[in-house]
Design a protein that fits this description.
By secondary structure, this protein is mainly beta. 12% of the residues lie in helices and 36% in strands. The strands form two sheets. The chain has an eight-stranded antiparallel sheet. Strands 2, 3, 5, 10, 11, 12, 14 and 15 form an eight-stranded antiparallel sheet that branches. Strand 11 and strand 12 form a beta hairpin. The N terminus is likely disordered.
Length: 293
């Protein structure tokens, strides 16, 4: 059973969200015409309101998707999403960073739909040099279909942090000193897609997509990238000192007590799967990074 936050905790949550909203103004808000290309869907992806809103739709014939025009090597990426409402069972809204090829790096948010009244599942994963299998899954403390919420990825040479409305839900550390690869050499684009995955997405595939509810639509706005743009084999970012106060301070961001506080709260109340706790899946022993949390 998910516990409700206390009044004091809710006050702290509101303060954190206000601080996040302030921080988002440090970078310029994006325009979808300038920043993204709709790559598939035969008209099911649309850019609206002069480039301020983008929508993806799914029907029985096809889903849709887009990708960023630019590649990035490290950054703080923020996007506001409003997910498919109602009976979204079988649908997946994916929002992620990825390089290309068999040895790709990838940082994933995937939102798995559900029948009306049941919670969405946030499925997260990290691929390094083509290897994934690092899934963590969560429910949310709000309905992600009623309003826009901010989903963020902070990626620097030390760690990857996943945020929901400024709340830390997952961290993946650089453990190269232990022989584990970390995404730091391959520039990545931002991708998103809305597609049908009713063979696995909802309750392990037991609940199928009800096409009577199509078209299914997810909406996006307020894209923001404080990030190092990769072009012609080089980065747009100058070296950032540890005490930097510039808008690129995310490059030297350290995991602090605030990050850890929110992470503990989310893991206690909303985590529903952690590959590091799935010993049946790894009979030869848990992955090395799981032993050094």
């Amino acid at each position: 059973m998910m516990s409700s936050p206390s009044a004091a905790f809710r006050s702290s949550l509101v303060l954190s969200l206000l601080l996040l909203a302030t921080s988002l103004h440090l970078g310029s808000a994006g325009n979808f015409y300038q920043d993204f290309d709709i790559t598939w869907g035969d008209g099911r992806g649309k850019i609206l309101n002069g480039g301020q809103v983008l929508t993806l739709s799914l029907d029985k014939a096809s889903g849709s998707g887009f990708k960023s025009k630019k590649e990035y090597l490290f950054g703080r990426i923020d996007m506001q999403l409003k997910l498919v409402p109602g009976n979204s069972a079988g649908t997946v809204t994916a929002y992620y960073l990825s390089s290309q090829g068999a040895t790709r790096d990838e940082i994933d948010f995937e939102f798995l739909g559900n029948i009306s009244g049941q919670p969405y599942t946030i499925h997260t994963n990290v691929f390094t040099q083509g290897k994934g299998n690092r899934e963590q899954q969560f429910h949310l403390w709000f309905d992600p279909t009623k309003a826009f919420h901010t989903y963020s990825i902070l990626w620097n040479p030390k760690h990857i942090i996943f945020y929901v409305d400024g709340i830390t839900i997952r961290m993946f550390k650089n453990m190269e000193h232990m022989g584990l690869p970390f995404p730091k050499n391959q520039p990545m684009r931002i991708y998103s897609s809305l597609w049908n995955a009713d063979d696995w997405a909802t309750q392990g595939g037991r609940v199928k997509t009800d096409w009577n509810n199509a078209p299914f639509t997810a909406s996006y706005r307020n894209f923001n990238a404080n990030a190092c743009v990769w072009s012609a084999g080089g980065s747009s970012c100058a070296p950032v000192l540890p005490d930097s106060t510039s808008e690129n301070a995310w490059m030297s961001h350290e995991v602090d007590s605030n990050n850890r506080k929110w992470l503990r709260w989310v893991r206690k109340n909303y985590m529903i799967y952690d590959y590091c706790a799935d010993s049946n899946r790894f009979p030869q022993g848990l992955p090395l990074e799981c032993k050094r949390k």
